[in-house]
Design goal:
It is a single chain. This protein is α/β, with parallel strands linked by helices and 341 residues long. The chain folds into two domains: 62 residues, Alpha-Beta Plaits, CATH 3.30.70.1140; 251 residues, TIM Barrel (Alpha-Beta Barrel), CATH 3.20.20.70. Helices cover 34% and strands 18% of the residues. The strands form three sheets. It has an eight-stranded parallel β-barrel with strand order 7-8-9-10-11-12-13-14, surrounded by five helices. Strands 2-3-1-4 form a four-stranded antiparallel beta sheet. A two-stranded antiparallel ribbon has the order 5-6. A hairpin with a 2-residue loop joins strand 5 and strand 6. Helix 3 packs parallel to helix 4. It is elongated, with a radius of gyration of 21 Å. Manganese (II) ion binds next to loops.
């Protein structure tokens, strides 16, 4: 439920409404805008009459949020979410590109890649140090050593770090290094992990599960938002279909659907959605044309020797060309490529 206060409501009236919301057993999510104060009353609201709030002093309108996700919905927050991590703005008008290798493999590999992607226009550095591999015998990631190299790369380039967390046991250690937690497709419905991340103030890039619906993705975002962490980016990364000429099928529809249903920034990962470097640029262009707020791209200085996802990784030169092209598409739509100072 959204309780919209009159624009001349007093702080005491707002306080009084908050008290009534809590007394009704609901959680309060306060949004104090320039125009109006909105009190989000979230929980089991279906058997609570709106009248109990409508009669309170200072209340203008009480509206039910019809979607099952509340805090993630555009009904709850019409304006796009935008937030700044170090010097990078996520969401908002500009289009941002996150880039880096699938896995951190060595100090020189991550530093070399970071410098190259920064030069090409990336606004954040990605790199996995705990890898969710299909085979238990495949490379599982460098762990904390990899994070130390990433932190050095951040020192040199100023790029904030986007790193996948696979389990709560990694949380405390990772908090010291990571700017944006990536929650991978395989963990999109790891509700305990989502809750733990929701209790932190570290931003999150939440990937869509391999066979998750858009609504399920938004419900997972709701787990994080309801814990108080508002800095969530959603990422379409391809879904499983019967088509096997590409690794996954890019659900390009997800971009405008998400943009209409939620205020959260929407990114697309054409590296995992296609699985093949030759197709990454085409789908990156399509994503921006469809209205995505950004991209996450795998880049490796020597893809044929990458320990993971080499087939879908772009060489730095090809990545630089892709960034230029998506920048041109963004401009047609009245947007610019985001930059960091
Ligand atoms: C990755 O980003 O390297 C990754 C494993 O992604 P996803 O969870 O989308 O498969
Ligand atoms: Mn990968």
């Amino acid at each position: 439920m959204m309780i919209i206060m009159h624009n001349n409501a007093t702080p005491a009236q707002v306080e009084n409404v908050i008290k009534h919301v809590k007394d009704a057993g609901l959680a309060v999510h306060l949004s104090q805008g320039v125009e109006a104060t909105i009190i989000g009353a979230v929980g089991e609201t279906h058997n609570i009459a709106t009248e109990i709030f409508e009669i309170l002093d200072g209340v203008d309108i009480v509206k039910r949020i019809t979607q099952p996700y509340k805090l993630a919905s555009r009904q709850f927050q019409p304006l796009n979410t935008q937030f700044t991590i170090r010097k990078t703005i996520f969401g908002g008008e500009d289009v941002g590109v996150i880039a880096g290798p699938c896995s951190v493999e060595s100090r020189s590999q991550i530093i070399e890649t970071a410098i190259a992607v920064k030069e090409a226009g990336a606004i954040a550095l990605r790199g996995g140090v705990f890898k969710p591999r299909t085979s238990p015998y495949a490379f599982q990631g460098m762990g904390e050593e990899g994070l130390k190299y990433m932190a050095e790369a951040r020192e040199i380039t100023g790029l904030p770090l986007v790193v996948e967390i696979m389990s709560q046991t990694q949380l405390e250690m990772m908090l010291d290094y990571v700017d944006v937690f990536q929650i991978g497709a395989r963990n999109m419905q790891n509700f305990n992990l989502l809750r733990s991340i929701g209790e932190t103030t570290t931003a999150v890039l939440l990937k869509r599960g391999l066979s998750a619906t858009i609504e399920e993705l938004l419900m997972s975002a709701e787990y994080i938002l309801s814990g108080g962490n508002k800095n969530v980016i959603l990422c379409e990364r391809g879904i499983r279909t019967y088509e096997n000429s590409t690794r996954n099928t890019t659900d390009i529809n997800a971009v405008p659907v998400l943009k209409s249903h939620t205020h959260l920034p929407v990114f697309l990962d054409p590296s995992h959605s296609t699985g093949l470097a030759d197709y990454v640029t085409s789908i990156a262009r399509a994503a921006i044309a469809a209205g995505a707020d950004g991209l996450i791209i795998e880049v490796h200085p020597d893809p044929s020797n990458a320990v993971s996802d080499g087939k879908q990784s772009l060489k730095p030169e090809k990545f630089a060309k892709m960034v230029k092209e998506v920048g041109q598409i963004a401009q047609i739509l009245g947007r610019n490529l985001a930059t960091i100072q």
